[in-house]
């Protein structure tokens, strides 16, 4: 699988309680890297969902507290664009975090 780290979208569904998003346990939900950079989505022990995009020396992070999410299926999506200079994180179709890239 080859991802375009300059612009793109990833999305996936976390099924109910697999993994549980508000349980205080670290989960690596998605990770990709190549010679140009990396993308990852993790759930921290402190119940934050973190989207990290790195392209060369440009590193941008968006995060949202997921400790109050209900125990049900959740749709997670993340978008990035070097051209638009931003990353965006969505949970269940709602924009929950947006960060501007710092060049």
Key terms:
Jelly Rolls, four-stranded antiparallel beta sheet, 0% helix, 103 residues
3D structure, described in words:
With 103 residues, the protein is mostly beta strands. It has one domain: Sandwich (Jelly Rolls). The chain is built from no helices and eight strands. The strands form two sheets. Strands 1-6-7-8 form a four-stranded antiparallel sheet, with no helix packed on it. Strands 2-3-4-5 form a four-stranded antiparallel sheet, with no helix packed on it. It is globular and about 35 Å long. The model has no long low-confidence stretch (mean pLDDT 94).
Q: Can you describe this structure in just a few lines?
A:
This protein is mainly beta. The protein is built from no helices and eight strands.
